[in-house]
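User: Structure please.
Assistant: Input sequence and predicted structure:
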Amino acid sequence: MDTIMVCVDSSRISERILDTGIDLARAFDVPIHLVTVHTEGSASHVTAQSDYQAQRAKVATAASKKFQALSARAKENAVGCTVNVGKGDVVDFLVGEARRVNPRMIVMGSHGKGAVHHLVVGSVAGGVLKNLGLPVVLVPVDPKVRPST
């Protein structure tokens, strides 16, 4: 399929990721395939069991509302748009989805967590790059960061 896969989450840079995907989709005159992945550990910072369940539900509701808003925005502004919501491991889902959809490229964010975090935990972008032979456009967390000339 001739499309651009745009990967968002509930972070503050998701709008910028979507805007980049829309710009690229318009330039190539292709639709967007918008995806997000819900993980189990998104409320793991809460320790009390009763608080954990309530916080997890609150986080899931907020993430769902954000994705609905991003989906509506994509459908209004892109050449065309399909969506998919996955569950589980983010890298595994995104790699599987890219293999299924076969996009022209992938647009995703870089959260800028640092070298130590990437060494110990890894990164979603790194996992996607390692497993696919597709161009990946990374949108930085800080909009002020510009390439050196």
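The chain has one domain: 4-140.
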